[in-house]
Design goal:
- The complex is a heterotrimer.
- Helices cover 77% and strands 0% of the residues of chain A.
- Chain A is an all-alpha fold.
- In chain A, α1 runs antiparallel to α2.
- In chain B, α1 runs antiparallel to α2 and α2 runs antiparallel to α3.
- Chain B is mainly alpha-helical.
- Chain B has four helices and no strands.
- Chain B is elongated and about 70 Å long.
- Chain C starts with a helix and ends in a 5-residue tail after the last helix.
- Chain C is built from twelve helices and no strands.
- By secondary structure, chain C is mainly alpha-helical.
- The chains are: A mainly alpha, B mainly alpha, C mainly alpha.
- At the B-C interface, α1, α2, α3 and α4 of B face α1, α2, α3, α4 and α5 of C.
Chain lengths: 109, 118, 329
Amino acid sequence: MSGFLDIISWILLSLGGMFVFIGGLGALRLPDLYNRMHAASVTDTMGSVLIITGVMLQAGASLASVKLFLILLFLLITSPTASNALASAALLSDERAKANPQSTSESID
Amino acid sequence: MELLGLFHYWVFAILLMIGLYAVIAKRNLIKKLIGLSIFQASVFLLYITMGKVEGGTAPIIQTGSAEQLFSNPLPQVLILTAIVVGISTMSLGLGIVVRIKEEYDSIEEDEIQEANKQ
Amino acid sequence: MIELFGIFLLSLMVITAIAIVQTRHLFAAVILTGVFSLLIATNFFLLDAADVALTEAAIGAGISTVLFLSALALTDEHERSSSANKYVALAVVAVTSLILIYATFDKPRFGDPSAPVHQHVAPWFIENTSSQIGIPNMVTAVLGSFRGYDTLGEVFVVYTAGIGVLFLFGSRRTRQNGEPTKSGLDPSEGLRHYLIPRIVGRLLIPFIILFGLYVQFHGEYGPGGGFQAGAIIAAGIILYALLEGEKQALRVLPDRILTGLMAGGALLFGVVGIFGILAGGNFLDYSVLFDNPMTGQQIGILLIEAGVGMTVTGVLLKIFHAFAAREHI
């Protein structure tokens, strides 16, 4: 493992960690389900792509990298599907987005 | 390392007691079963923690390397089967709860006892 | 670094457990139980128990969540009554946990190779796996051969639990074909109206089943074996049932076949044991099955693992179908 690749890998890992943190913060702070899902999708896409790419650089050209790539592929296929299923289930049970994100306390029908 | 080891055992004790609390204090039968599964999981954690050997690897022999230190395979075998047995017995419990709901139209313990008195 | 990660995971587990007990919404409690299982599986992996982690992830986070949710659909999603004798219970729990924590100070150091648990039996297993059985995964070797009686017992417990659920539900009150339910959607149709989950699910199911078979037959070399594979394959078929409807799933894997798998797996395990007696050895002694004792052991483990996988798949699917076919009243 050359020093250069190591540095790139660590940059990717920290960036990915940052995105996961932002996604988690958004999921906690935003007012309603759809906004929260929007925030959590940052974790699914940028977070997982950056972290797995970073780990792949650490693993080098080996079987582990291939497995990590497959995991990435699996995540990229399944997590949008899960979001879609979650959103349509929420629509079906009459969950509405709040019109004005500022007024978190009152609900709007 | 010292702290982590004790921390594992403490988490075991706390989880065991959280599960026990759900079993003795909650009146909802499904909640009791969930508490039981937490109780069970904490026992699994205790076994696996005790099987860990410092600097060891998973008990799978790697070809090529001569001297290897393995974690204890025996607790892992016991817990592996216990997990599957746990889910089977849990589903038996869930089946009984569903039957109780059908007969008494409730899964709350106090309401069932009330219905039994009449 | 790894210690920090362990402490983080353990703290998350305690927080999740408290949240599970606190919430009055049973649906949320069940989903949190799935999260809890995933956390404990990660923890098992950190503690070098790859096989156990695989089992817990497939069963705890996958199948048990589905079973709890189908039980909730038949009962109630909300916890109505408050806790009974809350303060007495809290006091009992607090005192007991203090005693338990006090007792942990006498436990051997974490990871201590000279702890009593590592002195008896286990070193023998570690030493003799390669010379007597010749497969790399010691967990499979101990499970299948050295402690075969134990595993036979466990398989029959799983089998009996499956029969118990079938007895409880009998044949009464199963839903009639096409009968509408409260929500107006026919649950036996599954998620056919939802294009995206359906297409992606159909794409993934063959890979899930393939992975299950890999775990089944690669169990002697890597983490895996019948218990895990049975759970993974059952999870794949349950996913199919959720997407395409329960009736379609029963058309693909009919009830007869599931009953056959359930009984056949347990039977296969027992028969392999009896063949050991017929070949002049002890019950569940595989080394007499072939001329070369090591080949005999390997074939024996392969067969009984197949039996375990069949029974676990059959029982889990039977239980799922029993819950799914039950009419809500």
